[in-house]
Design brief:
Blueprint lengths: L9 H14 L8 H9 L4 H11 L7 H23 L3 H19 L5 H13 L6 H13 L4 H15 L4 H11 L5 H13 L3 H9 L6 H13 L6 H10 L8 H13 L14 E5 L7 E9 L2 E9 L3 E6 L5 H14 L2 E3 L2 H17 L7 H8 L12 H9 L9 H9 L19 H10 L4 H10 L1 H4 L1 H15 L10 H12 L8 H15 L9
Antiparallel strand pairs: 1-2, 1-5, 2-3, 3-4
Helix pairs in contact: 1-4, 3-4, 4-5, 4-6, 5-7, 8-10, 9-11, 10-11, 10-12, 11-13, 12-14, 18-23, 21-25, 23-24
Amino acid sequence: MSRVGPKSSPTDDHARRIARAIAKGRPPPFGPELVRYCESSPGEIFSAFAGLALHMPPAGNDEVLAIGYLFLLQRLLEHLRYRTDRGYADAAKLIADFQADVVKRVKAGQIDGRMLAFVGGALHQSKIPASPDLAAASAQHAQNEHEPLQTDVRAALSGILKACEGDPFMIVGSLLETAHAMPVEARCALAGTLALADQPAARGAAVLFLLDPASAVRRVVAAALAQVAASLAPTDVRRLIAVRNWRPENERAEIDAIIRKARAAGIECVQWEVGSIEAIAATAVDGAATQGFLLVSPAGRKKRISSILTKGAIADAWSSEPESRRQIEASLASAGMAAPTLAVSRSYLDRIVAHHLAIGAEKGEAPPLGLLEVAETIGGVDWQPSRMTFSETLAGLVSEVPKTMLEPATLTSVLRKSAELADIEVIAQSWFEDDPEVARAVGRAGRGNRAKLANYLLQSIFARRRDRWADLILSTALWMREAPAEADLCWRELAIVAKALADGRDMTEIGLMRDIALRTIAVLTEPASKLNFG
């Protein structure tokens, strides 16, 4: 009789699929099936970490499979962070429990420095702050291993610069990921050490720490750069000028002081290198108000793809290494499958980036350093924080809407039939509310009359959030306006819906809002496996 091996779990299956793709040089298969798994199995972060620890050398013997579990862990953590962003306490507790478990393993000597770095990297990629206990445990582990951070940085600096071939973006990106689980004080020491080092490439990397997520790190590195301003390179000065207004207003004087000292020492700002954009694609704005941009730029005989992600600020940005035309086309095709995408103008890109830079600065945040790399890839930009006001944007679109569509009878019909607009059928699948308040309201109603529940939600919770929906729908109209005239997309109808919401129109009279309310009920009552949102 043949023996039956142990049955693999969905976590094991997904990790193996990811590992197979990586082994063949393909991108990990992050499709709808994996999304459903991550949404329905958040507690599998512990199993994914266990798989990582089991297979990663030297304890294990299958590094590729271990990397598969690492990718899966990062994806699970990212989905948990999405839920914490929406206010779900259970997701925040699960993240806290996971970090506490890692701390426990560190103290028990079950995790080495390499594994701790992997955890820090996964948290960094997921944009989850390291807990104070994990940061303290990381610092203590480094001390126990006789690796005082500042001494270690000085000793390893030459190796880091050589490994990254002097690329400051690669240097800082690697250091930020490695040091994510360390205390902020450690990152301050790291950035300060780079600034005061005697290598020009190290000082160039320190300039990029002016875009560190932590204000304390930005302040420390600014003070250190002020001490060595006379030794900065012309490229460093250009970067200082470029990022000056990207930072919160109360931090800009520090940059001005560095620039003045550099210029007093005779250091001029070098011109941007030649660059351009051949194509810009923008995704639709999803229900979390997230929008992505893909930019294609020439790089010799190859192409380079860059990405900017916006979500109430600049959430992420990066530029890839030069690739062949075929590889670029595959990336663009993949992005188009993930979300509805339009080719947009450079002016549209500039306008959206400026808007989100302003939002981030007002929050006291700096954009990710990848945004500067994107700016350099496309040959220089003058992105300055500048909010798009809702009223001016709406007025601009409404002024282009035929007056006949604004007549009372026609307008009422447009609002009533707005759920039937074919152009937003796919886009609107991500438009719903999902947070503890609305979940409680739907839960209390049970499985009663959904139409009545939708009316209740529209007249209560949704009514209090009409500004959010007006802004999201207006943003979608503005995006659709970028399409060629012959496409005749429904941006006019969406502008009318946005205006009706802003004017206080009863949401039950707006078909699109009723559709969003019904979708909200479905999301919160149906198992994730039964939902099909494209």
